[in-house]
Write a structure and sequence with these properties.
This protein has helices spanning 3-9, 47-66, 69-85, 87-98, 102-123, 160-173, 188-194, 197-200, 214-222, 236-246, 271-283, 303-315, 335-350, 389-392, 408-415, 431-440, 473-479, and strands at 11-12, 15-17, 20-22, 27-32, 37-43, 131-134, 139-147, 150-154, 177-181, 207-209, 229-233, 252-256, 261-265, 293-299, 354-357, 379-382, 399-405, 420-421, 423-427, 445-448, 463-464, 467-468, 481-489. It is α/β, with parallel strands linked by helices. Strand 11, helix 10 and strand 12 form a beta-alpha-beta unit. Helix 2 packs across helix 9 (214-222). The termini are far apart.
Length: 490
C-alpha cells in the first residue's frame, strides 16, 4: 500500500473552534492500543490554535453568560440526548482509541458522559445564595454568583469522554465558555461530540476543543492571560507545572491528580463480597483509573486465605481483545505505558517479591492481529516492603500488592504512608470500626464494604499530592463561579 493510500485510511481529526472544524497542518500519530498500529491523526496544536480558541470563547461569553440557567440546561440536555442516541458508536470509538473493552465503554464511559450533562443541567437550577440581616445597622447583605469567563479544561486519556464531560458540563451550565484540551492519546470521542454541538444548540465559541500535547497546547492554554480558571485531571508532575504557569495570573485551579489507594481488609470482613469487589477495584479499565486499589493490607489471621482466594479470583479476570464481551480488560493505552508498568513488576521481582499471577507468570492467548497490542494480564504481588517504589508510586496499571497487618493502628498508619490521598476502601462488619478508620484515613474518598459508589452531588477530590480543590454538585458550582457580597442600606 502506498503512503498516500495509507494516509486516506486514517481517521484525521480537526480542532473545533468558534463552532467550526478547523484543519491543522501538523499532526500526531494516535495508535490503536489493541493492535499497536497508527489509525488516527490528531492535530498537534500550539499557541496559535489556542489563541484562536480563547478569542472565540471570549466573544461567546457575554451572550452565553446572560442566558438563564434554564436556557443553558436545555442545551446540555439536548447534547446528552444526542450522545445517548449514538451510544454504541461512541462506545466502539472509545474502545478502539483507548484500549478498554467495548463492554466497559458501553456500560460505564458513555452512559456516565451522558449523565454528566444531565446532572449538571439539573443541579444548576437548584443552588441558592446567602442572605443575612443586620437590623441594628439597617442593612441587608446577600450574595450573588457569576460565571468567571473562559475556562481552560484539560482531561486525561483513561476515561476520555467521561472526564472531559465532567468538566465541560458544570463549566457551561454555570455560564462560562470553554477551551478544552483532551489527551492527545484518546481524542476521538471528543471530536465526535463536536459534530453534535450545532444540532444541540451550542452557540459558536461556547465549547471549543483544541487537540494536542501538554507541552504545546496545554502549556499555551494554562499560561494564557485570558483564561482565569483551569480544571485539570492528570499527573501530579504536570499539575506542578500548571501551578507554576498559572501563578503569575492568580488563576483559580482545580487539580485532580494521582492516587496510591489502599484497601484495609479486617478479619471480620465478608470475604466473598470483599474479594470480588477488590479484584474489580484493582483491575477495572486495566487498572487505569485514579481510584483503583493498588495496595491491599489484610489482617494477618485471614491473610493466607485471602491471598489464595484473591489470586484465584484474579486469574479469572480475563484480558484480551477489547471487542470480546467475555474479556474484563483490554489493552493499556500505549507501548511506553505498558513498558513502564512492566518495569514495576520487574522491580518487584528484583526486590524479592512474589509474582503470584499475571505478568511473567501467565501467558495471554491473543489473535495474530493483536500480537503487537499493549496487553498485560492482571498481576498480584506480595512480599514487598512499604518503602519500595512499587508501594509508593502510582503504577496506573493492572498491578496490586498485598501485605499483612497486625493491628488497626498499623493498618491506618500504613494506609496513610504515601504522598497521595485520593481514595481508600475499608472492609469490616464492625460499624464502629469502619467509621473510626474512615475518619483517620487521609483520603478524599473512603468506601466501606464497596467501591466506586458515587453520588455526584458530593465532593470528589484528594488530599496531599492527590489534588487541590473538589468537584461535584456544589463544589463545581462554587469553582466555576465567583461570589460577590452585596450590602444594601435601607
Amino acid at each position: 500500500m502506498s503512503k498516500t493510500s495509507e494516509q486516506r485510511t486514517l481517521l484525521v481529526l480537526e480542532n473545533y473552534i468558534g463552532g467550526k472544524f478547523v484543519p491543522t497542518w501538523s499532526h500526531l500519530d494516535s495508535y490503536d492500543p489493541s493492535t499497536g498500529e497508527v489509525y488516527c491523526k490528531v492535530p498537534d496544536s500550539g499557541k496559535d490554535e489556542v489563541e484562536a480558541a480563547v478569542a472565540a470563547a471570549r466573544e461567546a461569553f457575554p451572550d452565553w453568560s446572560a442566558r438563564s440557567p434554564e436556557q443553558r440546561a436545555q442545551v446540555l440536555n439536548k447534547l446528552a440526548d444526542l450522545i445517548e442516541a449514538q451510544l454504541e458508536e461512541f462506545a466502539q470509538a472509545e474502545s478502539r482509541d483507548q484500549g478498554k473493552t467495548v463492554t466497559f465503554a458501553r456500560t460505564v464511559d458513555i452512559p456516565r458522559s451522558v449523565h454528566n450533562f444531565r446532572f449538571f443541567a439539573s443541579s444548576v437550577l437548584h443552588h441558592t445564595t446567602d442572605c443575612s440581616q443586620m437590623d441594628h445597622m439597617g442593612c441587608v447583605n446577600y450574595t450573588v454568583r457569576s460565571p468567571v469567563g473562559v475556562a481552560g479544561l484539560i482531561s486525561p486519556w483513561n476515561l476520555p469522554l467521561y472526564l472531559l464531560t465532567w468538566k465541560i458540563a458544570p463549566a457551561v451550565a454555570t455560564g462560562n465558555t470553554v477551551v478544552a484540551k483532551p489527551s492527545e492519546m484518546s481524542s476521538v470521542t471528543a471530536w465526535m461530540m463536536c459534530k453534535l454541538m450545532e444540532q444541540a444548540g451550542v452557540p459558536p465559541g461556547v465549547i471549543n476543543i483544541v487537540f494536542g500535547t501538554g507541552p504545546r497546547a496545554g502549556d499555551a492554554l494554562v499560561g494564557h492571560p485570558d483564561v482565569p480558571l483551569v480544571s485539570f485531571t492528570g499527573s501530579t508532575a504536570t499539575a506542578q507545572r500548571i501551578t507554576e504557569r498559572s501563578a503569575p495570573y492568580c488563576k483559580k485551579l482545580s487539580l485532580e491528580l494521582g492516587g496510591k489507594n489502599p484497601a484495609l481488609v479486617f478479619a471480620d470482613a465478608d470475604l466473598d463480597q470483599c474479594i470480588a469487589t477488590t479484584v474489580r477495584s484493582s483491575f477495572s479499565n486495566q487498572g487505569e483509573i485514579c481510584l483503583c486499589t493498588s495496595r491491599i493490607y489484610v489482617e494477618r489471621s485471614i491473610y493466607p486465605e485471602f491471598l489464595e482466594r484473591f489470586v484465584a479470583a484474579t486469574r479469572k479476570w480475563k484480558t484480551g481483545v477489547p471487542s470480546d464481551p467475555t474479556n474484563n480488560n483490554g489493552a493499556l493505552i500505549s507501548k511506553e505505558h505498558l513498558e513502564k508498568v512492566r518495569s514495576f513488576v520487574a522491580l518487584a521481582k528484583s526486590e524479592g517479591g512474589t509474582i503470584h499471577c499475571g505478568e511473567g507468570v501467565d501467558q495471554l492467548d491473543l489473535p495474530e492481529r493483536n500480537a503487537s497490542g499493549y496487553f498485560m494480564p492482571a498481576t498480584v504481588i506480595s512480599g514487598i516492603t512499604d518503602s519500595s517504589r512499587i508501594m509508593q508510586e502510582e503504577i496506573f496499571g493492572p498491578v496490586t500488592c498485598i501485605s499483612p497487618f497486625d493491628s488497626e493502628d498499623e493498618a491506618v498508619s500504613r494506609g496513610n504512608g504515601v504522598r497521595y490521598g485520593l481514595a481508600a476502601t475499608v472492609w469490616s462488619r464492625d460499624v464502629g470500626k469502619v467509621h473510626r478508620v474512615a475518619k483517620r484515613l487521609q483520603a478524599g474518598l473512603v468506601w466501606t464494604n464497596c467501591w466506586l459508589v458515587r453520588d455526584l452531588n458530593l465532593p470528589f477530590g484528594g488530599m496531599k499530592n492527590s489534588g487541590v480543590g473538589r468537584e461535584g454538585g456544589k463544589d463545581s458550582y462554587r469553582f466555576f463561579t465567583e461570589v460577590k457580597t452585596i450590602t444594601i442600606k435601607h
